[in-house]
Give the backbone structure.
Amino acid sequence: MDFATLLTSRYTCKHYDPNKKISKEDFEKILEAGRLSPSAVNLQPWHFFVASTPEAKAKIKDAVMPMNMERFENCSHVVVLCAKTDATLEYISKVVDKEDADGRFGRKPEAKVGQDAGKKNFSSIHRISASEIAAWNARNTYITLASMLYQAHDLGIDSTAVEGMYPQVADDLLKLKEQGLTCLCMIFFGYRSKDDSNVLENRPKSRLDLKDVVTYL
């Protein structure tokens, strides 16, 4: 479907059918949407942890607030959305090497050198403190959230973006600090139950008018 239809027809699922599971093929498309998301200077400062079995969900269950526990248990897949806490020189070089392998610089070695220096210089602007570089990475990582939500909807898969959780608990459970990562939120994916209370037929989408959110300069 076209993107405008995706925007108007998607809603946040509140109740999942525990008997319906997402296929491996479809879920990989959702992850690809996240992977292919844009980011500042193409740093891609994110990592996705996926839980799709009761055993896997048990590893992160303590990070979910009680109000979201039912949908956590009934949904098909959970993504723990994480951002890097830094943009190290080593990591930047890894990104540039991948760009080179993918042919972004053609046969111009000086272009690779320039991109490497540019990324390091731009990221240094945000490295004025540990909290600022982490916040910058988080802002970029949240772009992947939207990409995955709308890719799922295009596949007929429902979703819930969840900040009703304990990020620090997730950090501890998944040992994220040791990996240079921090948890931002979770995303639940699956198929709505037949009596999901939040369907648009019951609760129409509501947004402020364009005139309330746009100023032409």
The chain has a mean pLDDT of 96. The first strand starts at residue 46 and ends at 51.
